[in-house]
């Protein structure tokens, strides 16, 4: 058998030949793919203007259609109607609070809404952030005309350039429509169009120019000089056609498309600089060649110097880490071991040694941290329980004194039946306050509040009435014990008792499923608070959250010295913060001569949901 002659070459030369062949083949494939890519990309960039501009026009049309629905829903809601048609001062205040809630809920329907305003025919005005001065020119222009949903121009709202939409507010259900006012919707047009451009052009193939104008050829968004050039260029008869726009003062030529929104009289122009197409193709082709060259260089360096020994050592380390992740405690004690073969790397060896030392230190540190956190948690939990128990025990002695005095008077009159009812209710209140769990259902808390109000009704006779308004799912919600009674007591003592006329108390609760909490409110029609007193109380509530010393009795004494009339409110606020955190402080609104509303919020939890979790 004939033997073939073997050509002997050094390993280094063999590797060089293989590497040269690899480079030549890779360069040829890259060149072929680049030429094909240039052709495809040219066709793609030419057609992308059509798809991009049509999608932008569609998104803009859908956005303004949704704004029409939002305007219609808000303008003809019962809350807005009641607010504009209300004549009574007290009910108007309540209607205003409901209107604010309605506007805030509407505001959340779209991220590009900057403001919502209601402008009544009688000058009544309400908005979330804008001023009546900003909307008055539009209201005056529309005052004497009959108009549908329309665009009225642009203006600055809180420093933001906004496109203003208007919707007439007319009466409903009266048989004859009468205008009550105008609903204005302020759209952050810069945010709307710039976000649409970013979302649809995420690959940054080109930078389009966007122009947006109304029927009066007033520019709403875009560059004014470019818009003047567009106006001087005849547009095609069909919106499906593209046309060229050439700037007079520069050599730039744009490919343009125009879309009209006839209902609102708006026009949208999308323009792309033709030179961007060539520039993008050249840039991408250059990047492809540079990336190919960089990859070839990295392959050479890694294969020659680092790849094989590094990969083997790294695999050993990864296998050891996976063993630890699987819970192999013996592997931690044994440590990582390395087998690099005949020629190894001192750096890899040092990494393994350092890793083994880190494992030992980490184990020691984990034990230390675990012990420290265990002691800190037990100490913090004990301190919180002590502070909550102290605050809950602070029952107003004036209530006890007045009740006992009333019982003595009943005894002198021989009113045995009423004495039994009052003492039974008083006993129930004290038994409830010192026994049982810290968390109770709203139904249980309400029974104690009713017992307290029965005692106060006996004391004040017909000085006030009581109304309850609770949603069906509110009664089972768990709340801290004795948080409603002090607020009701505050409403009677500092609100109704100081008033010279009969009043009322409204106690209610409702669940907010979206934010996961239950809101509880106590509203009285007493004397209310002047603005400076309300501001002082709100400041005390905020200070009670951040200026705590850790000594509940000292903190309570400090609050009593600073705001004695509201110590019950501050006590409840401190307990709410201890239970739920600083986001659950009391919310207080008051108007002198009208009344006071106090609201507290608790996470919506029931005994059943806690058992399931």
From TrEMBL:
Residue span(s) of domain Signal transduction histidine kinase internal region: 387-464
Organism field: Blautia segnis
SUPFAM superfamilies attached to this UniProt entry: ATPase domain of HSP90 chaperone/DNA topoisomerase II/histidine kinase (SSF55874)
UniProt domain Histidine kinase/HSP90-like ATPase: residue ranges: 481-605
Protein name: Sensor histidine kinase
Gene Ontology CC: one annotated term: membrane
Transferase recorded as keyword: yes
InterPro entries reported for this sequence: Bact_2-comp_sensor_kinase, HATPase_C_sf, HATPase_dom, Sig_transdc_His_kin_internal
Pfam families: HATPase_c, His_kinase
């Amino acid at each position: 058998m004939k033997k073939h002659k073997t050509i002997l070459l050094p390993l280094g030369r063999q590797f060089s030949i293989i590497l040269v062949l690899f480079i030549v083949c890779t360069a040829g494939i890259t060149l072929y793919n680049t030429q094909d890519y240039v052709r495809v990309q040219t066709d793609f960039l030419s057609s992308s203007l059509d798809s991009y501009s049509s999608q932008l026009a569609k998104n803009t049309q859908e956005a303004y259609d949704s704004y029409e629905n939002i305007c219609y829903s808000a303008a003809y809601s019962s809350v807005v109607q009641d607010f504009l048609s209300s004549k009574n001062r007290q009910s108007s205040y309540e209607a205003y609070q409901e209107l604010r809630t309605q506007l805030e809920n509407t505001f959340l329907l779209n991220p590009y809404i900057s403001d919502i305003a209601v402008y009544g025919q009688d000058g009544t005005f309400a908005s979330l952030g804008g001023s009546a001065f900003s909307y008055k020119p539009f209201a005056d222009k529309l005052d004497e005309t009959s108009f549908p949903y329309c665009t009225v121009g642009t203006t600055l709202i809180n420093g933001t350039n906004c496109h203003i939409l208007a919707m007439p507010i007319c009466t409903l259900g009266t048989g004859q429509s009468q205008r009550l006012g105008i609903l204005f919707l302020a759209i952050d047009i810069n945010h709307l169009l710039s976000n649409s451009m970013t979302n649809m052009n995420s690959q940054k193939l080109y930078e389009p120019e966007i122009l947006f104008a109304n029927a009066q050829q007033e520019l709403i968004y875009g560059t004014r000089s470019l818009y003047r050039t567009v106006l001087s260029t005849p547009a095609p008869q069909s919106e499906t056609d593209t046309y060229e726009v050439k700037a007079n003062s520069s050599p730039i030529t744009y490919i343009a498309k125009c879309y009209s929104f006839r209902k609102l009289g708006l026009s949208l122009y999308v323009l792309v600089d033709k030179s961007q197409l060539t520039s993008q193709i050249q840039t991408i082709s250059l990047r492809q060649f540079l990336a190919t060259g960089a990859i070839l260089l990295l392959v050479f360096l890694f294969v020659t110097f680092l790849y094989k020994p590094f990969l083997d050592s790294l695999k050993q380390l990864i296998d050891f880490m996976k063993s630890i992740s699987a819970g192999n405690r013996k592997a931690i004690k044994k440590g990582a071991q390395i087998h690099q073969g005949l020629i190894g790397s001192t750096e890899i060896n040092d990494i393994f040694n350092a890793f083994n030392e880190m494992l030992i230190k980490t184990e020691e540190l984990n034990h230390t941290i675990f012990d420290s956190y265990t002691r800190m948690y037990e100490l913090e939990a004990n301190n919180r329980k002590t502070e909550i128990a102290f605050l809950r025990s602070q029952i107003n002695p004036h209530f006890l004194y007045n009740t006992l005095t009333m019982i003595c008077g009943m005894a002198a009159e021989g009113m045995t039946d009423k004495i039994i009812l009052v003492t039974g209710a008083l006993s129930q209140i004290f038994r409830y306050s010192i026994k049982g769990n810290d968390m109770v259902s709203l139904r249980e808390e309400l029974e104690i509040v009713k017992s307290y109000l029965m005692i106060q009704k006996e004391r004040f006779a017909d000085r006030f009435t009581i109304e309850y308004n609770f949603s069906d799912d509110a009664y089972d919600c768990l709340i801290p014990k004795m948080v409603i009674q002090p607020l009701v007591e505050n409403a009677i003592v500092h609100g109704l008792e100081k008033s010279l006329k009969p009043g009322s108390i409204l106690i209610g609760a409702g669940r907010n499923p979206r934010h996961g909490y239950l809101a509880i409110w106590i509203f009285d029609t007493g004397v209310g608070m002047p603005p400076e007193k309300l501001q002082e109380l709100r400041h005390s509530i905020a200070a009670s959250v951040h200026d705590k010393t850790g000594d509940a009795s000292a903190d309570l004494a400090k609050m009593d010295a600073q705001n004695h009339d509201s110590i019950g409110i501050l006590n409840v606020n401190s307990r709410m913060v201890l239970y739920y955190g600083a986001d659950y402080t009391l919310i207080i609104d008051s108007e002198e001569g009208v009344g006071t509303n106090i609201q507290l919020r608790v996470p919506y939890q029931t005994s059943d949901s806690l058992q399931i979790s």
